[in-house]
Amino acid sequence: MINYKSNKKESVMNVKAEEIYNKIKNSNQKEAEEFLEHNLGELLSDDFIYKDIVFFYLKTPNLQKIVKDNFNKFLIKAGYKVNYFIQEFISISDENRAFIIENMDNIISKELFKNFIEVINVLKGLDDDVRKKLNEVISHKQEIFSAGIVYAYKDLIGITDENVLKCGKTLSYIFQDVLNSENKKFSDIEIIGKGHYSIVIRIGEKVVKVGHARYSYYIPNHKRILQPIMRSNYTEDGNIIACFEVSNKVKMLSDEEIKQKSTSLYRIYKELRDDGIVWTDIAWENVGILLGDNKPTLNGHAIDVDKKSEGFITDCVDKPLGKNEIVIIDTDYIFREKDLAIKWVSECSRFEKIYQKEKREEEQTR
């Protein structure tokens, strides 16, 4: 049996996780309980990589109080297996299910940021009473909830720890407005995807994007670009920290639709190019199919938005495209042809070569 008394010489960190697993499994109940209790801090630390250790505590009846007293630490340690941990915890007794409901205010906290999204997703999938309590707690901890989402994707977005709470506060205001417009609850907020520099969040028929400062914020407008409800940079001391955008939801193209519309990307490129606009991140994941007219809406009604406040250099003078039309939904790389610093993504410049070739052929036939 591994000595359960903690000291540097006998630290569990100096023992392989596999060996600890086998020792606990082959020990009698009293020895296992003593080892798990006396080494709690080290076993739940980031340095100890064996996540399944949390299940040994659940299987030990006399350690249930320790689990409840350190519940958030167990949720973090469980990592991607937190769904199984919570399900097993609840299955032990009705009292444990009641504990989660009663302890919800402590669960929705900064302490849980390391595994925040996973835990929220599990709680959303439980019964009505749990979801009701979850919504109740988040409604008065909106900034913590929003910051938890930002924290989970801070590296992707490019946000430092010191700006997580500040960005979370801004995001909470956006969430509240969209939730009110869509008549939804916080448990209805769903992270549906991520791009190279942003996450995509769905609330009803609206989409909220939180991303890295855009490569090109001020862009020309066009009917083929999805018209946002709002788009705004979050700045700190004059530096752009993140970009927030809200727009109507679109339908992404299926593999079959992509096959049927195989030439659509170039046609869209050419349409913009003929109007003096250069789109340099040409990809199927950057376009979507309109579910209604290409107009920003709130509370079910079309609204007028100051386009310049959203980063558009010009207004869109053409009639809005209608349902089932394809529009560009990622506007990070939209330029005017006269811009000096046009940046191409990957091998997308081949579209420009095709366009220039066609232009030369047209001139030769005149």
Oligomeric organization of the protein chains: single chain
- Overall pLDDT confidence: 90
N- to C-terminal separation?
A: 90 Å
Order of helices and strands: HHHHHHHHHHHHHHEEEEEEHHEEEEEEH
Runs in which pLDDT lies below 50 for 5 or more consecutive residues are: 4-9
Q: Beta-strand percentage?
A: 5-15%
Rg to the nearest angstrom? 26 Å
Main sheet overview: 5 strands, antiparallel
> Strand sequence of the main sheet, in spatial order?
1-2-3-5-4
Let me know the number of strands.
12
Count helical runs.
Answer: 17
Secondary-structure blueprint of this entry?
Layout: H1 17-26, H2 29-38, H3 40-43, H4 53-58, H5 64-69, H6 71-78, H7 82-92, H8 94-102, H9 104-107, H10 116-124, H11 128-139, H12 142-152, H13 154-157, H14 161-182, E1 190-194, E2 198-203, E3 206-211, E4 230-236, E5 239-248, E6 250-251, H15 255-260, H16 264-274, E7 277-279, E8 287-290, E9 297-298, E10 301-302, E11 326-328, E12 334-336, H17 349-365
Fill in the keyword field for this structure.
12 strands, alpha+beta, 366 residues, 3-stranded antiparallel beta sheet, elongated, single chain
What do you see in this structure?
The chain contains 17 helices and twelve strands. It has helices at residues 17-26, 29-38, 40-43, 53-58, 64-69, 71-78, 82-92, 94-102, 104-107, 116-124, 128-139, 142-152, 154-157, 161-182, 255-260, 264-274, 349-365, and strands spanning 190-194, 198-203, 206-211, 230-236, 239-248, 250-251, 277-279, 287-290, 297-298, 301-302, 326-328, 334-336. Helix 12 (142-152) crosses helix 14 (161-182).
